[in-house]
Write a structure and sequence with these properties.
The chain has 10 helices and 6 strands. The protein has 231 residues and is of the alpha/beta class.
Length: 231
Amino acid sequence: MDHLDLEPSAENFICSSLTQREPWGPVATQILQSGGKLWKETNLESHDIALLIPREFQEGSQHFQFLLLSPVDIEDRGAITRIEQLRHLSGDADMAVVFLFDEDRDEGATASFMKLQLGIVAGDILEIPIIPLSSPEALTTTLQSFMTSLVSSRAARSCPVDATQDLLPYCTVNAPLSNQSLGVLGNDSFSFRDLLDGVATEEGCTRIGDTIGQAEASRMLSFWTHEFAIP
């Protein structure tokens, strides 16, 4: 079984009762035995596993909470109650249901999955994602893939756009600005706002031309005056 790739200083939690629940007991025990100081066994009121979210990607909570369910759990109304409780305590954020969808182990997995979805719709708890799990042994790799995707999506949202470096090269006609011109503009302390103001005045146009040369300045000015219709 693969190990979760966790930060060295991470503290992740696994519910004590999970080691006694079928079919999760063996994999829960393996995680605790192989995880060393990265894992702490404790009583979790509303979920089964809590993974630490890297600090720079936390959005309100430190841990992502997972509720583990198998087809046998769905036969009990208590499963939906646990989902509702998890949603209430976590505030619709950083939580997911892991559902064991293993038809080799349980021929009723498909019917149970549909029943779970219907219960979620009826309970108006659609915000909670359901992560299908092919087998208990695949739990660690499935959680790792989910957390990697989570961090990647949050990193993409939080990545700042440097307008001068990311947008300016394409604010010209015929061809992008050269790297040399971009470097000169950056070194000369031009902000994107300075350039927008500059193309609207004769003095600004002259300064841009003196900075990057008349040929590239002309292509830039043509973009703003004709393509983008600067008045």
